[in-house]
Structure formats: C-alpha cells, structure tokens
Design a protein that fits this description.
single chain, mainly alpha, globular
Length: 245
C-alpha cells in the first residue's frame, strides 16, 4: 500500500531525499482509493510544506516536536509500556513479526518506531493493515490531538491513519485529556527528566543492566543521531508510480 509508505516518509526525519521525492509522494497520495478527498488534501499540504523551505528549519522543527519529551514520541510502545520490561518483550515479538515478513531493518532502528511500523504494514494485506491500525488507534488518537493543539502539520498524517483504522475517536474526550496534560517538552520538564535519570544512574551503578536500561540507552543513542533512515525502496517504488502516471 503505497499510501502507508508515503506517510512513513512524512513521519521520518526530514532529508534532502524526501524533498527530491516530492512528485512521487504526491502521486502516491493521489492514486490512493481509500482516503476521502479532504484528508488527501491534508497530506498534500504536509508534503508541500516539508518539501519547500529550508531543510534545516524542517529538521529543527521535527526534533523539537518528536524528540523532546515523551508525549509525542514516535516509539509506539513507549506510550504503552514506558521503560518497563514489558516493552522489551513487546519489541522482541514485533521484531519476530518483521522477520517472518522478510523485513530487514537498520541496526539503529527500534522496531516500534512508527515510520518503520508503517513501512511493514505497507507490505501486508488490507485486512491485516486495518487490524493493526485498529489495535493502536488509541495511541494515534492521542498523538493526533496533541499535534492538533500544537498546530502541527503532522496532525494530518495521524488523522489519515485513524481513517484507515476505521475508528473515529471521541474528540471532546481527547481534547479534555490533552488540555489537562502538563507539557513535557519545556526546558523545565526536560531538566526534571535529566535529573531523574541521573539519580537512577547513580542508584543502578554496580547492578545488572535490565531490559528497561538497555531500551533507555538505545533510545538516547537514537536521539543523539537524530536521523533514522528508512529504506530507499519507497523513493524507488514511488518514482516508478510517478512514471506510470
């Protein structure tokens, strides 16, 4: 499903390759037969914004939006399990699912990274796609509302995913939940997280490294590198689709 690959690329760290693939991404949206016109237009606006203007500005906005705080993390299991040991097992199970489907991922990618998950779904039958998206619709709904309240263009991607999931969330309930949340991307909130992690590090010195510690270390490594690349197959496939149009 080409549309899911388009959305995977839109949610990945902005790159020059993304901007160069503008026409192919637009074609991928226009050729889709499942989304209503209004949501297609939202995705097209997202493509236009990300493919125009200064790339470094887009990258800075991306990091500020998704890499500061956990409320907008694109690591799905972080919203379900946090840093608990359950998340480690969930990621192992998801990795096995990818392996059975023949999907190989880069060593820097965590299996619950949403763009990677969407790339996997793009290779699956529609019934399976809808079932997976329905399973995570509560996460998608919260992310969509948080992005809406921050007036982010990325909100259109999550709205489209909810439509594909066939689930219409309770907007009033979500709006009330998000409005009551304390922002976790402010300098004060980030300082608090840093202090808590330092205390935990001191307490854990000399002990064994648990699953949650490994995950936390891995996430910080990813955040330091910032760029997390998906395969270039989307660009190739989308380019072929554009050539046929």
């Amino acid at each position: 499903m080409m549309l899911l690959r388009v959305m995977a690329r839109l949610l990945d760290y902005p790159t020059a390759e993304l901007q160069e693939a503008r026409d192919a991404l637009v074609t991928g949206v226009l050729e889709d037969q499942r989304l209503p016109t209004a949501q297609k237009q939202g995705l097209l606006r997202c493509i236009e914004m990300l493919c125009e203007g200064d790339l470094m500005d887009h990258q800075e906005n991306y990091v500020g939006m998704f890499d500061r705080g956990r409320s907008l993390s694109l690591l799905l299991f972080e919203h379900v399990h946090g840093e608990s040991r359950d998340r480690g097992q969930a990621m192992v199970d998801l990795m096995e699912t990818y392996n059975r489907a023949g999907l190989e991922i880069d060593a820097r990618e965590l299996p619950d990274y949403l763009p990677l998950f969407l790339e996997y779904l793009s290779m699956r039958p529609w019934e399976e796609v809808q079932n997976w998206l329905e399973d995570i619709h509560h996460i998608l709904g919260l992310l969509a509302e948080r992005l809406f309240q921050r007036e982010s263009i990325y909100q259109s991607v999550f709205e489209s995913l909810l439509t594909l999931a066939g689930r219409a969330p309770d907007r009033q309930e979500l709006a009330a939940i998000v409005a009551s949340e304390e922002r976790d991307d402010t300098p004060e909130a980030l300082d608090k997280v840093w202090e808590e992690e330092m205390v935990k590090f001191v307490d854990d010195q000399g002990g064994s490294c648990g699953t949650s510690d490994v995950i936390g270390k891995r996430r910080r490594e990813l955040e330091q590198s910032q760029t997390i690349h998906l395969s270039d197959q989307l660009i190739t496939d989308a380019g072929h689709a554009a050539g046929r149009a």
